[in-house]
Amino acid sequence: MRRRRSTGQPSSILFVLTYYRPHVSGLTIYVERLARELVARGHEVTVLTSRHDRSLPATESIDGVRVVRVRVFARISKGVLMPICLRAIGEARRADVVSIHLPQLDGGPVAVVSRLLRRPTVLTYHCDLRLPAGLVNRAADAIVFAMNLVAGLMSHRIVAYTQDYASSSRLLRRFPGKVRVIPPPVIMPAATPQASDEFRRRHGLEDGPVIGAAARLATEKGVEFLVDAMPALIERYPGIRMLFAGQYCDVVGERQYWEMLAPKIADLGDRWTFLGVLQPDEMPAFYSAIDVLVVSSINSTESFGLVQVEAMYNGTPAVATNLPGVRQPVLMTGMGVVVDVADAAAIAAGVREVLDHPDSYRRPRAEIEATFDLRATVDAYERLFAELGAPFTEAAEAADGRHG
Question: Is 396 a residue whose pLDDT tops 70?
C-alpha cells in the first residue's frame, strides 16, 4: 500500500526540466514516476518545462501533477531557447523545494533564481551532455556544461544514480561533498503469460530467439554497433529477430544519424523491426517476449540504462556496454553480461553468451525488486528535502523508522 502523509499541510515541489510528457526519454520517465509517487504521498507537484510541441496546452494536470509549459523561441540541436527563468520566479515562490533536472541549458539561471529566493535547491544529474559532431553542437555542449556548472555551484545537493557514474562525471567530480546517490525510480509490472504470448504471436516471434532494445534512435545509443552485430548473430541463429521499441524517426537532432543507419537496417529485412513508442502497459509484454535486452550506449550521455532494470523485472537479462553507471544494473544483479564499448563483435559475443546459457543469467523478480525499490527511492528524496529544511520532516521520519 502506498503511504500518504496523514497530517499537516502538503509540501510543494517544483521540478524543472527541458522536456516532459508526451516527450519520451529516460529523464522524462524518471521525473514522471517520481512526481506521481510524491503526489500519491500527498505532496503538491509542479513540473516546469518547455512547450516543445505547440499543440500542447500551456498548463494542464497529468495524473495529479500540475504541468506548466513555457513557449519555445528557438531550437539548438536537442536544446531549446525559452524564457523559463521568468516563469521560474513565480513558480519557485510557491514551492518549498526546487528540484532541477540536468542537463539543461536553463539549469544554471534557474538554480540562481531558486537560491536568491532562499529555496532548498536540489539537482538531479542524469548524465553528461555530448551532442553529435559539429561546430554548433560543440559550442552547445560547452554552454550547457557551463550552465550545469553554475547550477552545481548554486545547489545545496546533487543526486546521482550511482557512485560509479558520479566518480567519472566531469561535472559531479567537482562537487563530491554535495553528491547523494539515489537509485532511479522503477515501476514495471510483471507481464501475464497471456500478454507475452499474444505479443509474440502478433509480431511473429514464434521461431528464433529475440533481441530487444528500448531507446530513442540517438547517436549516444550506439545503435550502429548493434546493427553491425546482426550478421554474425543471424549466421549463428538463422531465425533471430531484433525488436526496437522507441522513437526511431524524427528524433530531435538525429536526422543525419537516422539517414546513416537506415540503409544498413533496411538490408536486414524482416530481421529488424521498429515497434515505435510503446504505451507503458505494453512494455511488460515487450520485455517478457524478448530473450535479451541490449544497451549499446557509447558515451557518458547514458548514465544508467533504466530499461535494463525494467527488463530484469520481467525475467529478461541484459547485455550492456562497459560504461560508468550503465554497467551497474548487470553488476549489481548478475543478470546479464557487460561488453566493450563501441564493439559490434563484443555485442554479438555477449548476446550469444546469454542466449546459449539463459539459466545462468536469471534471477527471481523479488531479488531485483529488493535492489531497486521505488518506495526506497522516493523515501530518499523526502529525507534529502527534509535535510535541507524543507517541510518534509514527517515523511522523512516515517521513512527513517521504516528503514532504520
Answer: no
Residues linked to residue 158 through DSSP beta bridges, in sequence order: 123, 179
Q: In whole angstroms, what is the distance from residue 341 CA to residue 263 CA? A: 23
Is the pLDDT score of 358 beyond 60? Answer: yes
Contact criterion met (CB below 8 Å) for 212 and 243: yes
Q: Name the DSSP class of 191.
A: P
Instruction: Identify the band that residue 392 occupies on the pLDDT scale cut at 50, 70 and 90.
Output: low
Three cell numbers, residue 216 = 530513442
**Confidence category of residue 389, pLDDT binned at 50, 70, 90:** confident
List phi, psi (to 5°) of 149.
-65, -45
Cβ atoms within 10 Å of 373's Cβ, excluding its own: 16
Instruction: Give 361's contacts (C-beta < 8 A, 6+ positions apart).
Output: 317, 334, 335, 336, 337, 354
Whether residue 127 is predicted with pLDDT greater than 60 in this model: the reply is yes
User: Cis peptide before 103, with omega less than 30 degrees from 0?
Assistant: yes
Other beta carbons less than 10 A from residue 365's beta carbon: 13
8 Å CB contact between 114 and 108: no
User: What's the CA gap between 20 and 28, in Å, rounded?
Assistant: 5
CA pair distance 223, 297, nearest whole angstrom:
8
**What's the rounded Cα separation, in Å, for the pair 303 and 295?**
11
Residue with grid cell 528535502, as numbered in its chain: 385
Residues counted in the chain? 404
298, 310 Cβ separation under 8 angstroms? no
Cell numbers for 166, please give them.
Answer: 558520479
Q: What is the average pLDDT value for the chain, to the nearest integer? A: 91
Q: Is residue 259 packed enough to be buried (19+ CB in 10 Å), middle (13-18) or exposed (0-12)?
A: exposed
Per the confidence metrics, is the pTM higher than 0.70?
yes
The count of other CB atoms within 10 Å of the CB of residue 194 is 9
Position 78 scores a pLDDT of: 72
C-alpha cell at position 23: 516527450
Q: Which residue has the cell 557514474?
A: 165
Name the pLDDT band for 10 (thresholds 50, 70, 90). low
